[in-house]
Amino acid sequence: MPCEQADFVVIGGGPAGAAAALMLRRHAPGRRVVLFEAGRHELIKPGEMLAAVAQGLLRQLGVWTPFLAAAFVENRAVVSAWAREALDERYSIFSAHGAGWQLDRARFDQILVQAAAAAGAQVRLGCEVRSAVREDQGWRLKLADGDIFAGAVIWATGRSWRLARSFGAKLRVHGHLAAYTRFFDRAPGDGRMVIEARPEGWWYSADLPGGRRVVACLTDPDLGSGLRDPESWYRALAATRLIAPLLPPGARETAMLVKSAGTATVDPAAGERWVAAGDCLFAADPLSSRGIVHALRSGILAAYAASDMVDGRDDLARTRYAMIASQGFADYASALDVHYAAAARWDTAFWQRRRPQPEVRAADLYHNT
Ligand SMILES: Cc1cc2nc3c(=O)[nH]c(=O)nc-3n(C[C@H](O)[C@H](O)[C@H](O)COP(=O)(O)OP(=O)(O)OC[C@H]3O[C@@H](n4cnc5c(N)ncnc54)[C@H](O)[C@@H]3O)c2cc1C
């Protein structure tokens, strides 16, 4: 039976997928790009801090004006009690990159996907890609209500790796971590993000647009399972020195989420006529605050790689992309280990596990196919 055809299909409408779809349309305007997103950006999502370096990427994607119009909270400072009890305050006016932002994530993701649609990508919300089958010159993707053929696929499904088997990719988990997050309204702030290391793990909080606030505890899933219970979570919160006072008496909890937040990569980073991008390629520990920037950057690079693939430069595209992915991971992994080791001042299970480990060789993580 003949099925729908597209030059490129992007699976996932988060920042990585939206950036990829936008870039594909800019790079190859004559080509048909279809983006499938399982959800509708109506659900609350963690990942609120956008680093200032994102500005260049947002400009490159042509979304700087709608981004500014959304008036997200400007991040004035990051306050932390990490390596020691004393406070460390970093003000964004002293940063060469300027201030970052504290986002309404659903709104941010919508802005990007709307820009991709405006640039000519066909966006299908509420439409999950269920599996992928390799065919000559591309992939046949299975949807709930039919198939679509794609000349090349950008796989940007975030921390959902269900399609790994279809693409012949392996998930490598480098560290476990879970985020026990609660969102509040009537809890305004002054644009500061606060981070506090605790014996059980670490906490962060930031004020979000509309007087909302996020508060999260990050720990290992085997140590934190009790934190699903509101009583335990609020008891642990009450023991924090910097985070608990950020919630005024009138604050009202609006949502609770438990999300896996450890480091993971896929191997290979790209294969025959497919490229992984964003968290799906490399999911970072939220401590790095670089997930969204990585998603935007890798989405852009994946678009170039996918274009090269359909233009007959498959091997070159894969090799180059795998090299860039490998370098990005190497920089991250060494910085993260150092950062955790600096705060390992308790003899609890969480911090014992983060004492210095033998070096991870990034070259072993990604192989060219
Ligand atoms: C607790 C926590 C806090 C974080 N804090 C920060 C932070 O402060 N700053 C920061 O930069 N990063 C942060 N991150 C990371 C950041 O949220 C991610 O790096 C970022 O969302 C990755 O974007 P993405 O597009 O790769 O994936 P996602 O944003 O996860 O988007 C993937 C999309 O794919 C869709 N999808 C999945 N499967 C399918 C399918 N089969 N078919 C169609 N669609 C599908 C999903 O519905 C989803 O919308 C945090 C993460 C966690 C867990």
Describe this structure in words.
The protein has 369 residues and is of the alpha+beta class. The chain has two domains: 4-72 and 102-175 and 262-327, FAD/NAD(P)-binding domain (3-Layer(bba) Sandwich); 178-259, D-Amino Acid Oxidase, Chain A, domain 2, CATH 3.30.9. The chain is built from ten helices and 21 strands. It has helices spanning 15-27, 54-60, 64-69, 105-118, 164-167, 221-224, 230-238, 291-310, 314-343, 349-352, and strands at 4-11, 33-37, 49-50, 73-75, 77-81, 88-91, 100-102, 122-125, 129-135, 138-143, 146-155, 170-173, 178-185, 192-198, 201-208, 212-219, 252-260, 264-267, 270-271, 274-276, 282-283. The strands form four sheets. Strands 1, 2, 8, 9, 10, 11, 19 and 20 form an eight-stranded mixed sheet that branches. Strands 6-5-14-15-16-13-17 form a seven-stranded mixed sheet. It has a three-stranded antiparallel sheet with strand order 3-7-4, with no helix packed on it. β9 and β10 form a beta hairpin. The structure holds flavin-adenine dinucleotide. Flavin-adenine dinucleotide is lined by residues 11-17, 36-39, 46-49, 128-129, 156-160, 179, 181, 216, 259, 261, 278-280, 286, 289-293, 295.
